[in-house]
Amino acid sequence: MFKKLFSTIGKLFSPGELGKSIISGVDKSILTSEEGIDYHKEFLKLYEPYKIAQRFLALMFTGVYLMVHLMTSIAHFVLVLMKQNADHVVELYQYNNEGLGTIVLVIVSFYFGGGAIEGVVNKYKTKKENDKN
Length: 133
Hints:
transmembrane, membrane, transmembrane helix
């Protein structure tokens, strides 16, 4: 029993094993440019399903929002041509804006704003690097 315990403790604190594990840890923590590119490629492959789900959700919310706007616009147009009261259609239009307007605005701003902000940051970064040289 004690022999097994001491052999386990000896394996934990063995200088040879400890040195190898430290070197391995340091090697894994410092990335070369090739390793960084490989990890980035792997990340992009893993990120693809998230991007598809993100696009699907964006299309779902904006599709419903735009469809309700289109239907209320057509109904409002027809009721105005028929010289009837269109207050209930205007109320539906306002309800759509209150219920889905903010959500769609956030989705569209993240969807398009992320790329725009990234482009501005990259442009600023390259300009700063060119000014140094």
